[in-house]
Amino acid sequence: xxxxxxxxxxxxxxxxxxxxxxxxxxxxxxxxxxxxxxxxxxxxxxxxxxxxxxxxxxxxxxxxxxxxxxxxxxxxxxxxxxxxxxxxxxxxxxxxxxxxxxxxxxxxxxxxxxxxxxxxxxxxxxxxxxxxxxxxxxxxxxxxxxxxxxxxxxxxxxxxxxxxxxxxxxxxxxxxxxxxxxx
Length: 183
Known about the structure:
- It is a single chain.
- This protein has 2 domains: 2-48; 93-182, no CATH class.
- Helix content is 38%, strand content 21%.
- The chain is built from 5 helices and 7 strands; from the N terminus they run ααββαββαβαββ.
- A 5-stranded mixed sheet has the order 4-3-6-7-5, with no helix packed on it. It has a two-stranded antiparallel ribbon with strand order 1-2.
- The longest helix is centred in the first third of the chain and has 30 residues, at 19-48.
- It is elongated and about 75 Å long.
């Protein structure tokens, strides 16, 4: 223990003699530790952690390409998705979603902008996700004129105060009526 204290005193004396070196050493350590932490966090989230779905190793994401615009990961249009689904002989099921759509939610207190997704009715069952309250989408609700909404748990708590009787109530998304079926 005595030797460690002597080594620490010696290190502090040396760093006081050359403060420029001390600053460079501390900055180098800070950048190195920060870079390692960031890289590990990304690798852990992308490669090491499993997705929170049953049989996550069997999930596949499909993207199109649009060479004329230089896009390598182009979302599939609904028309192309229906055609891919019709010709599918490889996958047990296929679902589609359009992520990060902004909706204006009204009809329940103060209007607010919420992020959402437009999905095919089978997305939740394909992912093995069961609603906490209510039911999932039905096949007939996949038609363009269908207006059924699924709320996140957080939005259900915030806007409806965790009221289980909110199922079936009407809300407005972008001014159009929708009915809540699950949370």
